[in-house]
Amino acid sequence: MTKKTICWLVALVLVMGVALTGCGGAKSTSGTKNALVFAQGSDPRGLDPAFVDDGESAKILTQVFEGLVRYKPGSTEIQPLLATEWNTSADGKEWTFKLRKGVKFHDGTPFNAQAVKMSIERQLPPNRKEDMPYAEFTYDGVTSVEAIDEYTVKITLEKPSAAFLANMAMPLSAQIVSPEAVKKYGDKFMENPVGTGPYKFVKWEKGQQIELAQFDDYWGDKPKMPTVIYKFTKENSVRASDLITGATDIMDGVDINDLKMLQDKGMKIVKEPGMNINYMGFYTNKKPFDNQKLRKAISMAINRQYLVDYLYQGNALLPNSILPSFIPGYSKDVKPYDFNPEEAKKLLAEAGYPNGFEFTAITYSNPRPYNPANGEKLAAAIQADLAKIGVKMNIKSYPWKEYKQVLFNAEGDAYFYGWIGDNGDADNFLMLLDTTQIKGSLNSSKYSNAVLDKLLEEGRACLEPAKRAAIYAEAQKIAVEDAPWVLLSHNMDMAAYRPNVKGFALHPTGVHWLDIVAKE
């Protein structure tokens, strides 16, 4: 081979390298003008509204699917969506929805009453499957769904339900799916979602990203961005770095330790009171925490104000009730047990533990929307408080996917957990202590109180707001005094975005709408 030939080959390799680098750069849509890139902590569990129960899924589902109604921006008031109007019968048991005409699913099939009927009926007995986590809650008491005509649907309940319309606006379970696509994909619909939303599904690269594209035949205003990318990055600090460099445009799960850095770099911060509760729960159906005095003692030994001020650096609110203060039915008169270590010691003695005792609490290893510090740091802070009254709390930590199973199995004596509200209704929080929820995964404390159960049943059927609020005020009082949980904090919802992003906002339910967001 001649020297001239070698030089030519070297030059060719260099040119090809540049070309390949250019192709590699073109593969990623991050940071481009045509794509809006949203960074979140993990993949969704799936993209079928009937089979998922997590916030990471809900965010993406909200772009692809729509329900009959939706929440107004910034609140949980209800407004029309796929239904243009609705009415109820005098006894509150029949709901009739008039449907929007001229709507298409992403596969080109028409949206109509039959699509609504199928979407709901697949989540009702006998079609309902055990792995449909929200079906029983969303459609509680629904006895039938009838297509009156092509654009009218009547849903009949066995009894009045004050929360029914709010349930129908949820980003999980209540969204309407394409009957033809469900038939076509079967179990694979979870990875091939087809809805009526402003964005349609393009592809899912597991562990990396999901790509959505604007739906050209969308019935409403066209999305401001042609492409949306949901990028999955586990580490909060890496998401923050990507935002600063412009690799992404928006991120949630902002670490409180990254706040100042993000602000100093010119990033915009969204901070809103969260519709959530962060708590420590006791298994009340077994020793030692079947003893209410013992639960009360532990409650009084925990310095909740310290957690809010230092662990969460002021980015959380101290709760007096299970309910956040903006939920209708919230009672400001409920009084939780104040921090009082000396009184806690007296209660320990009265409960039969004058020299303290030892127990095991399980927790999760990762941050959660209601606890951005992560479960291990929270448990360690409480462990230190309890040691001061002679109580030894052993901590067992699990990754989130494993944690939910060990919690369901009631491992240990106590646990750390939280709840993000689904629909802005008081019952959505208080039901977590209903005896009927013990058989599932919602009432993790296995708590049972017949008086509370009766109040919750009355509240669900009461259609008068003032009377309903009085019922829930009494329910909140019982829940706090009986102490199945220690109410630790209401976390602030936070997200960050680059200064050229316009129109982004958080919703109290934890979702967002990206069709109204633009990049300058």
Question: Would you mind describing this structure in some detail?
Answer:
This protein has 520 residues and is α+β, with helices and mostly antiparallel strands. The protein is built from 16 helices and 20 strands. Helix 9 runs antiparallel to helix 11 (341-350). The longest helix is centred in the N-terminal third of the chain and has 25 residues, at 3-27. The N and C termini lie far apart (54 Å). Residues 1-30 have low confidence and may be disordered.
Features:
31% helix; disordered N terminus; 4-stranded antiparallel sheet; alpha+beta; 520 residues
Explain briefly what this protein structure is.
The chain is 31% helix and 22% strand. It is built from 16 helices and 20 strands.
DSSP helix fraction: 25-40%
Instruction: Report how far the terminal alpha carbons are from each other.
Output: 54 Å
Chain-averaged pLDDT: 92
Largest sheet, described in full? 12 strands, mixed
Count of strand segments: 20
Question: What's the shape?
Answer: globular
* Number of helices, counting only DSSP H or I runs of 4 residues or more: 16
Beta-strand percent range: 15-25%
Label the structural class.
alpha+beta
Low-confidence stretches: 1-30
What is the CA-atom radius of gyration, in angstroms? Answer: 25 Å
Topology overview:
Blueprint: H1 3-27, E1 35-40, H2 55-64, E2 69-71, E3 78-80, E4 83-88, E5 94-99, H3 113-121, H4 135-138, E6 142-149, E7 152-157, H5 164-167, H6 179-185, E8 199-205, E9 209-214, E10 227-232, H7 236-245, E11 250-252, H8 259-264, E12 268-273, E13 276-282, H9 292-301, H10 304-311, E14 316-317, H11 341-350, E15 358-364, H12 375-387, E16 392-398, H13 400-408, E17 414-420, H14 427-430, H15 450-461, H16 465-482, E18 485-497, E19 501-502, E20 518-519
Parallel strand pairs: 1-10, 1-11, 15-16, 15-17
Antiparallel strand pairs: 2-3, 4-5, 5-7, 6-7, 8-9, 9-10, 11-18, 12-18, 13-17, 13-18, 14-18, 19-20
